[in-house]
Amino acid sequence: MQTTELPGGIDLVEEEGGPVLRLCGEVDALVVAAYDAAPHGPRSAVAVDLSAATFLDVPGLRLLLRATEGTRRSGRVPELRRASHTVQRMVEIAGVERMFAAVP
């Protein structure tokens, strides 16, 4: 059986302020599908750590919005942490930067 190594990864980790979605590498449709297939409960992320992410495609951007939707519904603004220039530019081009508080 042949296994395909994914170009990136996604983890939902508990931090002091609440759940944080951590992305690394290239977050594309395959990486998002693998994350969605894994059990991780209905917790909404209060922040997204992009310090190790090098690329986001449209499914990756949708995941950011979906994973933080509950935080926005509660009246809080989720944080977008440490995005590289490339990833930040993708977020801006998609027009979703206004939905997050940017944290350098």
Describe the structure.
- The protein is an alpha/beta fold and 104 residues long.
- Helices cover 34% and strands 33% of the residues.
- The chain is built from three helices and five strands; from the N terminus they run E-E-H-E-H-E-H-E.
- The longest helix has 16 residues, at 58-73.
- The termini are far apart.
How do the helices and strands line up, and which of them pair or pack?
Blueprint: E1 8-15, E2 18-27, H1 29-37, E3 47-56, H2 58-73, E4 79-81, H3 85-94, E5 101-103
Parallel strand pairs: 2-3, 3-4, 4-5
Antiparallel strand pairs: 1-2
Strand segment count: 5
Number of domains: 1
- Give Rg in angstroms: 13 Å
Number of helices: 3
Calculate the terminal CA-CA distance, rounded to whole Å. 43 Å
Which structural class is indicated by helix and strand composition?
A: alpha/beta
Order of helices and strands: EEHEHEHE
Instruction: Enumerate the strands of the largest sheet in spatial order, edge to edge or round the barrel.
Output: 1-2-3-4-5
The outline comes out as: globular
CATH class: Alpha Beta
State mean pLDDT (0 to 100 scale): 92
Helix content: 25-40%
The name of the CATH topology is Transcription Regulator spoIIAA
Question: CATH architecture, please?
Answer: 2-Layer Sandwich
CATH superfamily: STAS domain
Strand content: 25-35%
Q: Show unreliable segments.
A: none
